[in-house]
Amino acid sequence: MATTAQSVADLCLAARDAARELASTSSVTRERALEAIADALVARTDEILEANARDMEAGREAGLTGALLDRLLLTAERIAAIAAGARQVAVLPDPVGEIIGGGRLANGLELKKVRVPLGVVAIVYEARPNVTVDAAVLCLKSGNACVLRGSSSAAHSNAVLAGIAAQAAEGAGLPAGSVSLVAGGGREELAELATQEGVVDLIIPRGGEGLKAALKGVATVPVIYAASGNCHVYVDASADLDDAVAIAVNAKTHRPGVCNAAESLLVHSGVAAEFLPRVLEALRAESVELRVDARTRALAGAELGAALVDVTDEDFASEFLSLTIAVGVVDSLEEAIAHINRHGSGHSEAIVTADLDAALAFERGVDAACVYINASTRFTDGGEFGMGAEIGNSTQKLHARGPIGLRELCTIKYVVTGDGHVRT
Amino acid sequence: MATTAQSVADLCLAARDAARELASTSSVTRERALEAIADALVARTDEILEANARDMEAGREAGLTGALLDRLLLTAERIAAIAAGARQVAVLPDPVGEIIGGGRLANGLELKKVRVPLGVVAIVYEARPNVTVDAAVLCLKSGNACVLRGSSSAAHSNAVLAGIAAQAAEGAGLPAGSVSLVAGGGREELAELATQEGVVDLIIPRGGEGLKAALKGVATVPVIYAASGNCHVYVDASADLDDAVAIAVNAKTHRPGVCNAAESLLVHSGVAAEFLPRVLEALRAESVELRVDARTRALAGAELGAALVDVTDEDFASEFLSLTIAVGVVDSLEEAIAHINRHGSGHSEAIVTADLDAALAFERGVDAACVYINASTRFTDGGEFGMGAEIGNSTQKLHARGPIGLRELCTIKYVVTGDGHVRT
Asked: Which H or E run includes B261?
């Protein structure tokens, strides 16, 4: 691994040199490197735990909350799980070299459109030290060199983990510089990393809004911002109401703190009288706070009245990330689509319907990365989608939309072969 | 068409509304709209010529050069060619709705990865009024609304052309606001357009470095910058020298002012003595200025000596865009690849070789959008690549690399269909 005395710029240049070699490595070499990383993590568990204990102690002294300390904590079991994750990625299909188009042109030239690594991918992340390994493994599998920048609160853990990954990768035949860690978790290092234009090919931040805002101000390198998710479930007039209750409850309560959880429920007026009392009762039974419009309140039934809060426009625009839901009645599919396009963040949007026309209109009319028909928004995930793993989820439209997996960490190259062809 | 009294922000919002409708239009409707635009251009030729005459007069008064006036000039033949181009794009395969991946997941969910329009695409361009129609046509074909911003020198021509395109498109059933033109070609309008985050999905500049620099300073909307091309031809030790001469001459002289023309020639020392006198003579016969390193000069032959200029490092880094070439000798394929990765702009790079290992190493080792084996760099073009048309050429790695055709004007959407699926 690059030594901590290197400047960020030097470390990125070394990563670029490594990336140029990595682009020509075989699938087998990269697979073995990932297995070597997994082996080394397990073999050097004590060393990792020792470093982690120092971070935990500093965290306790600094007064970190219990939740943050838990995110920081490594145990032998957690290290084994990180190693198991690396082994799963190792055996995924290699995206590098995949031919995704081409053929013989009219003039006899052979054209191949080939998937190739991006080059140098920087991952910027917060407290969880497991990201150090998860990110390195996805980058190496896709033939990229990675530059990691974790938070200062996990500095000791990250240094050991990145060192182990770098050594194991090099030992397995990958070039030196394939994995490196920026020493120092400050804003200065972030700014330096984010301005290595022409050297760093992509930055992916994994963290909160503060991290994103810090990058947005300074980055000249391309950034794919992880998504916020203001997701909706729309229950159409023709919906199977049992399915609709199950989907609404699952989308809201299965894991309320993640980006693919639902934040709003829209109900067609044609089924509102029958459906709303049922779904509100079911949500309340899961301790969900109900923020409802006037029509919902009128239909909710008397015994629920005290549990209802009046919804505001701001609520409809909010990603609660908690057991809270905004509920409203709409008079048409078109009104639902317009509401979603106005308030949604383009992440995951669901319709429950038995009507094929409605399903098609929703699929085409909603502007989002993932559109669900009769299924919970909670499925938006690289693993669920069969991509094997993901490094985040994108709501932007360029390059990667939805889960960012191994293919999304690649670019393409056209390879054109002739026998002396000139253009006339 | 949006009236010129609208603010840039209002015009972009109208375009976004149009884009949401456009995403659901059928392929046939969009194809007919393009044919209607072609018909209207021919039918209203006099009106276009009249507006163009006013721009030409103003241009002459402002002292524009002959070259710029020629770029500004429209004739009946040029208008007919623009219309013919629109008809060619009309019948290209529709990228919208193409299913590019998916299947049945283990839990029974059906996953489709579908190509969908980006939404609102802004095209910013300089003197050529034909871009007004070319850009509108590519955007509409790919289901995008377009916002055009041309230069003030072509204001009258652009207003009439955009008006015709907008009217014809609306007449054929596309939503109002699908084509609009920003009134005013100043930096203020550019800055306002470039900051319509969340409304404009992509800006593509077509113009010189000044335009790109102006955008770079202000844009918060994603931009794909058209490429500069510092392209190389490398002649390997095993090259067929007849092919090598033909490819070097073609890549340099076929159209020296474009981005896929070669700017440098690298020759393996093993063939330099035999090859250099031949290729330099052939290039000189085409009036190419020869900037050569010391080894090339030593091998060039006495009668060429006076025609040779000493090459500088700056020459190797230059996109001449003229009949000038930098020539150097290298001792290995690896040295050639390193030189290209150091000086190239990642556009189009060619090797001439009979050696399969060398071809493979060059293909994988050179970091560029297009790599040529035994063919001229001049083929980098959406039309040549079978993409039907292009709106520019990208050397960036994210989203679009190489020719930007109809597919590159799209994003993707995941459509997931279940029968009440929830995540457990």
From this structure: none
